[in-house]
Structure formats: C-alpha cells, structure tokens
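Reminder to self: tokens first, then the designed residues, so the page reads top to bottom the way the pipeline ran.
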C-alpha cells in the first residue's frame, strides 16, 4: 500500500560544539538523526586547501547522489577513477549507536586534526565535522567570501 504522505526533507543546519569521548564517539544532534533505524552515515575524509582535511558526513541519499555524479562522468575522464579510489579508500559507514553517537575512526580523526572537541557544521543536505582550530580558519575564510556568494543568490 502506497502512502500519500510526503516525508519532510531533513535539513542539517546550525552549528554545534561537542566533546569527543575516549572511544572517539561524537553526539549527533537529535534533529539531525535519521528516523529510520539502522541508517548509516558515510564519513568521508575531505581535503580542504590550506585549512586541512575535515570529515564530510553524507546521509544515504547524498552518498547515492555522489555516486551517481561520479558514475555520470565519462569513463575516459581520469578524475573519475581518482575520485572513486580516494573517496572509496577515505570513507567509512558510521552507524548511530542507541545514544545517537557515531564513532570517528582513529586514522580519520587524526588526519582531520580532531582531538577531544569537534564542531558539527550544518551544510543543509549534509553536515561536516571539524576540529575547532581548523573550523576557525575556514570560518574566517568564509567570512571574506560570503558577500560574493550571496550575490549569486540575488536571482533566487
């Protein structure tokens, strides 16, 4: 039986500062948690210029879109293979535990500069996990670019 009800999309907005426990678990805000039990996020170690890498957290729908976008690239495009290898080797599936936490793999956390504190940053259709120090750098950089970025939205 099909349902006529539409599921409201989940948006990842706001900014949260959380501690990381001794097992590298991070609390995910309740409003960001999937409603379907057993849903896993995909954590990707994402490169970020001068600021250094961070963790991009993709819900299943966004991970599927990323795969579709990569698969749509021409087979002769060398970036296609590189993206598949790098994203494939630098990502993990992260289930939520019963307390609403995900565990950050040790190697990923170290590469992202994450210690005992994190900043969870909403990015509308996904979210990011940053070390507070790296996030401060990227926020300063974003502050410089924000006016130009919002000018692009004048037509919306």
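Designed residues (156 positions):
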């Amino acid at each position: 039986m099909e349902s006529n009800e539409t599921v409201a999309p989940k948006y990842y907005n706001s900014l949260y500062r959380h501690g990381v426990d001794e097992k590298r678990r991070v609390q995910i805000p309740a409003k960001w948690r999937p409603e379907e039990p057993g849903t896993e996020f995909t954590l990707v170690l994402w490169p970020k210029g001068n600021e250094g890498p961070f963790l991009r957290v993709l819900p299943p729908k966004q991970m599927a879109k990323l795969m579709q976008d990569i698969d749509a690239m021409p087979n002769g495009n060398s970036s296609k293979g590189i993206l598949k290898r790098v994203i494939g080797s630098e990502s993990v599936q992260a289930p939520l535990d019963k307390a609403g936490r995900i565990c950050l793999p040790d190697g990923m956390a170290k590469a992202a500069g994450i210690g005992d504190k994190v900043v969870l940053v909403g990015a509308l259709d996904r979210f990011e996990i940053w070390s507070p120090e790296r996030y401060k750098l990227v926020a300063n950089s974003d502050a410089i670019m924000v006016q130009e970025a919002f000018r692009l939205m004048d037509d919306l």
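Helices lie at 60-71, 78-89, 106-111, 132-151.
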